[in-house]
């Protein structure tokens, strides 16, 4: 069994039932997602890709914020994509948001969109769930336009929060196969250097969340 098939089966199992109330609960602890959407600022008539789009919550919010932009979402979980498509259809954004099932760590997975390069690529609480997360970052960078940006928000290392809080949170996250990436900052900066870009990295909410932007320029 390949890594992608194993991950797909795992994600479908984890979210088979959770997807129906996922957004109602996650809004309380997936902090920084709206900051990411505000700072995307894609160009007019631009194209934006979310790798690991889940229920489509971020794509819908971003599509409403940027009405002159097209959005694309990829997820490895068929169950999540079914929920995402239903949510998108309900909001009347089907003509501006396109979904595909695939592995975020595979650069070829987004070829079906017919978009040669994306102005923005973003990951929202996704890298902590992808076993080969470095490859997922590289895959996004491979599809980035010459003057594009990558935005990332995910769980941080809780540096300035009480030790007991980190222990409880990390134990709870582990039960959902979520692993906050301790070396996320270093990996993002190394990736930026490898593609001739610049990375900014910020710890939000006393280290609860990590937020980063990789910016390319012509």
UniProtKB/TrEMBL annotation:
A Pfam short name: Methyltransf_25
Annotated gene: rebM_2
UniProt record, GO biological process: methylation
SUPFAM superfamilies, alphabetized: S-adenosyl-L-methionine-dependent methyltransferases (SSF53335)
Enzyme's top EC category: transferase
Protein keywords: Methyltransferase, Transferase
Protein name, entry field: Demethylrebeccamycin-D-glucose O-methyltransferase
InterPro entries for the chain: Methyltransf_25, SAM-dependent_MTases_sf
Gene Ontology terms, MF aspect: demethylrebeccamycin--D-glucose O-methyltransferase activity
Top-level division of the source organism's lineage: Bacteria
Methyltransferase domain: residues covered: 48-148
EC number, UniProt record: 2.1.1.164
């Amino acid at each position: 069994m390949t890594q992608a098939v194993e991950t797909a089966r795992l994600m479908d199992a984890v979210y088979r039932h959770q997807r129906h109330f996922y957004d109602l609960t996650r809004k309380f602890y997936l902090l920084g997602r709206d900051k990411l959407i505000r700072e995307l600022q894609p160009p007019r008539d631009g194209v934006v890709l979310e790798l690991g789009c889940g229920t489509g919550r971020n794509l819908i919010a971003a599509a409403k914020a940027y009405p002159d932009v097209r959005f694309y979402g990829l997820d490895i979980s068929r169950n999540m994509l079914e929920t995402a498509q239903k949510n998108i259809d309900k909001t009347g954004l089907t003509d501006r948001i396109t979904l595909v099932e695939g592995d975020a760590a595979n650069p070829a997975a987004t070829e079906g969109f017919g978009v040669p390069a994306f102005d923005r690529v973003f990951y929202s609480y996704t890298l902590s769930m992808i076993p080969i997360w470095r490859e997922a970052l590289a895959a996004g960078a491979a599809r980035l336009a010459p003057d594009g940006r990558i935005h990332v928000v995910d769980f941080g290392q809780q540096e300035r929060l009480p030790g007991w809080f980190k222990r409880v949170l990390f134990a709870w996250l582990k039960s959902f196969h979520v692993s906050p990436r301790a070396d996320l900052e270093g990996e993002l900066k190394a990736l930026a250097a490898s593609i001739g870009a610049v990375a900014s990295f910020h710890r939000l909410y006393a280290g609860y969340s990590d937020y980063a932007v990789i910016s390319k320029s012509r």
